[in-house]
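Action item from last week, closing it out:
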Amino acid sequence: MDSPTQDDEPERDDSAPEDRPDEPGAEGGSDSPAADTVPAAPSDDDSPAGDTDQHSDA
């Protein structure tokens, strides 16, 4: 019985999915300055943190 060699295994891509050009998603990758930054809250938002109800002035 032959032991598996390195040539028998398919190439592994250990890069993050967002760094692979063939993967769907926003461009920028894991090196983007926005990668770990959440968007800022609007200045006029007075709802408590975690409040997901839709507020309307209509």
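Closing note: The chain has no helices and no strands.
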